[in-house]
Design a protein that fits this description.
four-stranded antiparallel β-sheet; six-stranded mixed β-sheet; mainly beta; globular
């Protein structure tokens, strides 16, 4: 089964940027759409955005205009570029397709 591993999180000041990576153990992104999600402490997991097989991007209203999603097929990796970060973006970020399990995620903390 293909596995996804998230990375790239960290501590950043408000207004800063981070790029998260979602690396797959196989070329699943060529045949499956994927989604980015996040879960803040004490809150339910929420959808952040999705990338279709044809590179169409869908983003939640809360991140539209600040986040972008892209894919590198040569590396079997999808990226979440996060700009103009806000404290409310603090969460564990996870990626998933319909056929993969939830991974550990990567922690993003936005704080001064």
């Amino acid at each position: 089964q293909v596995q996804l591993v998230e990375s790239g999180g960290g501590l950043v000041q408000p207004g800063g940027s981070l790029r998260l990576s979602c690396a797959a153990s196989g070329d699943i992104f060529k045949t499956s759409a994927m989604g980015w999600y996040r879960q803040a402490p004490g809150k339910q997991r929420e959808w952040v955005g999705s990338l279709s097989i044809g590179h169409t991007t869908y983003l939640a209203d809360s991140v539209k205009g600040r986040f972008t999603i892209s894919r590198d097929n040569t590396k079997n990796t999808v990226y979440l570029q996060m700009n103009s970060l806000k404290p409310e973006d603090t969460a564990v970020y996870l990626c998933k397709t319909s056929s993969t399990n939830w991974g550990q995620g990567t922690q993003v903390t936005v704080s001064s």
